[in-house]
């Protein structure tokens, strides 16, 4: 049976269901003589008689009835497999691993895109992985993560595609009892006012782009920052700020993180600090699910522009 042409099985089923060559030929969109030849070819290949030829039609033999049930199952499985492959190609099925940094997850853009993707492709198995920017770049390059939302793309490896999704301003995060903010509702400070402060930054290995942007902005403001602590995660910096160990500079979307003991203030300086939100993926032929997510990101970004 492995050598039987699936097309012959479809012809066989049409004749079996119509019990008539001419009607089956019309249903299949072919002429009757070629269909009759194909049925005989199938019988010769199998070495059995599948139909009794009657004056006014075709009647299944015992062998034909046995083949009919199996042929239906075989063709149904083939159709199911073809449909599954097409759904994966269209990004409607399969598996997608999406990485993100802790700070990226707090920007409303990221959960909104994930939600819209799940609504449009509910059959895709979505796996979410949180890690640092450096680790996510390696995971994408090596194929362990399909796409990732990171902060900047400083030092991204060759073979990894990069697209900036948006940029947001930076905030200073102070301990609530810090003299600069205690008892005063300060809305903005100059970056130069942090020259003597102990800074708590996101570890450079974890997010080199953001780290370097902060250092460059401080130098443009006329001072070399005093980095007292480096935390492995962006949220860890806020915990250290709340403990009174120093001041941090974080993306504005982290204002949504309501940590007791932390006060956020806008920052101005000679060089505006911007925190990019970047999408990366492996620069290789894309699966349907990856392509679908990228398209969702682009569409959502375009829809967000008028609102911003």
Summary tags:
10 helices, eight-stranded mixed beta sheet, alpha/beta, transcription, two-stranded antiparallel ribbon, LysR_subst-bd, rod-shaped, 43% helix, 308 residues, 25% strand, WH_DNA-bd_sf
Helix-strand blueprint:
Blueprint: H1 6-18, H2 21-28, H3 32-46, E1 51-54, E2 57-60, H4 62-89, E3 94-100, H5 102-105, H6 109-120, E4 124-130, H7 133-141, E5 147-150, E6 160-175, E7 188-190, E8 198-202, H8 208-220, E9 226-231, H9 234-242, E10 248-251, E11 262-268, E12 274-282, H10 288-307
Parallel strand pairs: 3-4, 3-5, 7-11, 8-9
Antiparallel strand pairs: 1-2, 5-12, 6-10, 6-11, 6-12
Helix content: 40-55%
Decide which structural class fits the backbone.
alpha/beta
N to C succession of SSEs: HHHEEHEHHEHEEEEHEHEEEH
- What distance lies between the first and last C-alpha atoms, to the nearest angstrom? 63 Å
Tell me what portion of residues adopts beta-strand conformation: 15-25%
- Outline type: rod-shaped
How many strand elements? Answer: 12
* Rg (CA only): 32 Å
How many separate helices?
10
Can you give the mean pLDDT? Answer: 86
Q: What can be said about the biggest beta sheet? A: 8 strands, mixed
Protein name: HTH-type transcriptional regulator BenM
InterPro entries: BudR_PBP2, LysR_HTH_N, LysR_subst-bd, WH-like_DNA-bd_sf, WH_DNA-bd_sf
Family: Belongs to the LysR transcriptional regulatory family.
Organism: Achromobacter ruhlandii
